[in-house]
Amino acid sequence: MSSQKSKAAEKAAVTSAFGQNPHAVREPRQNNLEMAIGYEVRECRRRLGITITDLAAATGMSMGMLSKIENGNISPSLTTLQAVSKALGVPITAFFRGYEEPRTATFVKSGQGVNIERRGTRAGHQYSLLGHIDNNSSGVMVEPYLITLTAESDIFPTFQHDGMEFLYMLEGEVVYRHGDELYHMQPGDSLFFDADAPHGPEQLVQLPSRYLSIISYPNKRSSRD
């Protein structure tokens, strides 16, 4: 009984830590100009770390008016947007970016990932890139790989880079190191970690081994940073 309560508490804590509902439905920004403008105004303001009160003082507009703009409830005039853009220090065209920006996707057929070279290539690790979207609207870069280790591969527990990484074991067995901890990974096992700590396969137990590696990190080239 205590174990069930513990798991329930853990689930509640994890759920509350997430900042959004991935299954939520909203009106597409690209199909609603007012919502697109409001979203960009709010994001610009938040990046500067100022409140609606601060923005109201800088523009001479009421807080109610700015709140309506940010929520997409009104269609602001160009004169109004010009005043807001001046206060936020961005070009007026920045407010239309979300309306015009395409939302892309990549589809990769089985076995058709792009084989590329990474640091582990010299240790015999095979990397197949399963998709890539550059300059996306989230400000986050994601690199999904299918990694294959064979009898020609060697251990390499010293990867270290920015961002977060998620592993999902598909085939074979490896002992994977993250910092001072070792994890015996078998098919169906997963590992999620801060990639700034040294990590990588410490022991190759059963080959061939295949696992998904999904790396995410801030897009420093993004204008949203």
Structural write-up:
The protein has 225 residues and is of the alpha+beta class. It folds into 2 domains: 28-100, Orthogonal Bundle (434 Repressor (Amino-terminal Domain)), CATH 1.10.260.40; 114-218, Jelly Rolls (Sandwich), CATH 2.60.120. It is 28% helix and 28% strand. The chain contains 6 helices and 7 strands. Strands 1, 2, 3, 4, 5, 6 and 7 form a 7-stranded antiparallel β-sheet that branches. The radius of gyration is 23 Å and the shape is elongated. The model is unreliable at 27-31 (pLDDT under 50).
Give a short summary of the structure.
The chain has 225 residues and is of the alpha+beta class. It is 28% helix and 28% strand.
Shape: elongated
Kindly report the oligomeric state of this protein. single chain
Query: Which stretches are poorly predicted, pLDDT < 50 over at least 5 residues?
Result: 27-31
The CATH homologous superfamily name of the largest domain equals Jelly Rolls
N-to-C SSE string, H for helix and E for strand: HHHHHHEEEEEEE
How is this fold's topology laid out?
Elements (H helix, E strand, L loop, with lengths): L1 H16 L15 H16 L3 H8 L3 H8 L7 H11 L8 H4 L13 E3 L9 E4 L10 E10 L14 E15 L2 E5 L4 E5 L4 E20 L7
Antiparallel strand pairs: 1-2, 2-3, 3-7, 4-5, 4-6, 4-7
Keywords for this entry:
225 residues, alpha+beta, Jelly Rolls, 2 domains
